[in-house]
Amino acid sequence: RTQYLNACNTFEALLEMNVVPIVNENDTVSLGEIRFGDNDTLSAITAGMVHADYLFLLTDVDCLYTDNPRNNPNAKPVTNVTDIKALRDAVDVSSAGSAVGTGGMATKLIAAELATAAGVTTMITNGSKPQRVIDIIEYFSSPDLQADAPVPASVLCTRFVAKSRPMIDRKWWILHGMYCAGTIYVDAGAVVALARFKKSLFAAGIKRVEGSFSSNQAVRVVYEPEREAVDNVENLNDDEARVLNAVSPIRSDVIEIGHGLVNYTSTEISRIRGCHSSEFEAILGYCDSDNVINRGNMVVTVPDGILDDVFITKMHKTKIRAEQRAPVAVKSPSLGAI
User: Fold this and answer.
1) What is the DSSP string of 88-99?
2) Is residue 277 a contact partner of residue 287, using CB atoms and an 8 Å limit?
3) How far apart are CA 38 and CA 101, in angstroms?
4) DSSP characters over 199-264
C-alpha cells in the first residue's frame, strides 16, 4: 500500500509541476511483482492512480470492429461500449499485437475494463493521427452531444463509458495494484457469505491454501466445484449430495471469487482452516483477528451470472431464505382465549 501511495504522490507532484511522466514497462530492470505484461494494462493502472478523465489506447486502426476489417469487408465499427462482457461475446479480438507493441485488441479490452472500473473513460483510436486525440476530447465534451448520435469519421473511435459508480480507491488498489502472493480455496458456504451477503472470510470456510505469503499481503480467493462435491458427499444427506453434485457439471474449473488482504500468514491459515475463531488461541497461541480477510479488505470479482448458475441451487436458496426471513410473531393461545 505504501508503494502504491508513493507512486500516486509522485505522479501528482509531477503533474502539479506541469511535467508529463512517461511510464514504460519495457524499460524496467526488475521483472518481479511490478511486471504487468503489456503497456495497455500498465496505462490503465496509471490512469486509475492519477484519476484521469480519459485514457487513450492508440493502435493501427481507427476503432474496434466486430471482426478484423483487413480480412472481413463486412466488419462494422463499434463506437460506444457500456458492457465490456457483452462486447467480448459479440466481437473477435483474437488478432495479435502490432510490430511495435506486445498487446492486441484483447489486452486493450482488459485495460479498458480496468480503467472504466476506476471511473476513467477509455478510447481506442488510430495512433497515426495525433490531432484526433484533441478532436475526440472536444467532441465528447460538447454539452450538445446526443448519446445515440453517430460518431463522425473525423473523430472515429471506440469509447468505453466509465462506470457511474467507480470502485473506491482502496479496493481498486487491492484488485489491480497488488501482486497476489497466494490462493485460498473456500467452500460453497463461504462463497455465499462473501459474494451474496458481503461478509468477512472466516477460517471455518477455508478448504486449503496455496503459496507462501505473509499477513497483509494480497491473495486470490477461489472456489473449486468438483473438489467441493467430492469432499462433502460423505457428510451430506441424499438430497444435499444430489444437489451439490449436480452443480459440478455446470462449471468444473476453478472460479475466482475475489482478492483480499489476509490477517494471517499462509502457515497460520493452513493450521486454522476449518476451525472456529474461538479455537485460534489454542492452535496458534494467539488470536490477532477473528477473521482471515475482513470484508473491508475484500473485493468480490465473481460475476452475478456465474454465482446464480453455480450456487443458487435448491440447497442454497433455502439457506438464503432462512437467513433473510424476518421473525414472525406467534400468537399465544392464552391471549386468544382472553
Assistant:
1) HHHS-------T
2) yes
3) 8
4) PPB-GGGEEEEES---TT-EEEEEE-HHHHHHHHGGGS-HHHHHHHHHHGGG--S-EEEEEEE-SS
pLDDT at 244 over 60: no
Question: Which of 327, 9, 43 has the alpha carbon at shortest distance from 176?
Answer: 43
pLDDT at 6 exceeding the cut of 60: yes
Read off the DSSP letter of residue 176: I
Q: Which amino acid is at 205?
A: G
Rounded Cα–Cα distance for residues 125 and 237 (Å) = 58
Which three cell numbers, joined as nine digits, stand for 195?
Answer: 459474494
Pairing of strands 180-186, 218-223: parallel
Q: Grid coordinates in use for 84?
A: 465490456
Please state the φ and ψ torsions of residue 119, each to the nearest 5 degrees: 90, 20
Asked if 213 contacts 266 with a C-beta cutoff of 8 angstroms, the reply is: yes
Cell 451470472 locates to 305
Residue 294 φ/ψ region, left for φ over 0, alpha for ψ in the -120 to 50 degree band, beta for the rest: beta
* pLDDT of amino acid 337: 37
Check residue 31 and give its pLDDT.
47
Residue linked to cell 433473510: 324
Total residue length of the chain: 338
Closest among 8, 40, 23 to 123, alpha carbons compared: 40
Residue 186 CA to residue 198 CA, distance in Å, equals 15
pLDDT band at 332 (very low <50, low <70, confident <90, very high): very low
